[in-house]
Write a structure and sequence with these properties.
Number of domains: 1
Largest sheet: 5 strands, mixed
Distance between the termini: 20 Å
Number of helices: 3
Structural class: alpha/beta
CATH superfamily: HesB-like domain
Strand order of the largest sheet: 1-5-6-3-4
Radius of gyration: 14 Å
CATH architecture: Sandwich
Number of strands: 8
Length: about 130
């Protein structure tokens, strides 16, 4: 079962979404139904947020749930989380070709992860959660 790192504090989130990415998520949900995101760790598609039909991606014990964007759960591997745990991820959609296996590939847009470090106050709130 994946670990859940979604903070219990409503004031701090580990992942958020831009309006452009939210519009693309809604389009993909209408076309494919339930979805999930997994931040790839490199290899073929580089480090990119990958969008899959929820029933076609097998999550494991080493996957960590960071939260939800547009009602879609967002995961990454535990080893990646160790690297990214001090950052807030912002998922955007920009023109380009998506990851080889990611659902947005044929749309002419691709999901992109931007990040920023948590503020001291956000880090403290996450520690308390």
């Amino acid at each position: 079962m994946p670990q859940d790192k979604t903070p219990s504090s409503p004031d701090v989130s580990r992942v958020s979404v831009t309006p452009a990415a939210l519009a693309l998520i809604e389009q993909l949900k209408a076309q494919h139904g339930a979805l999930l995101f997994h931040q790839s760790g490199g290899c073929c598609d580089g480090s990119a947020p990958m969008c899959f039909p929820a029933n076609e991606f097998l999550l494991g014990d080493v996957d960590v749930k960071l939260g939800e964007i547009g009602g879609v759960p967002f995961y990454m591997s535990e080893s990646q989380f160790a690297y990214w745990e001090h950052t807030h991820l912002i998922i955007d959609a920009i023109p380009g070709s998506g990851g080889m296996f990611s659902l947005e590939r044929p749309t002419g847009l691709r999901f992109l992860t931007r990040s920023r470090l948590f503020t001291d106050a956000e880090s403290a709130a996450l520690q308390e959660a």
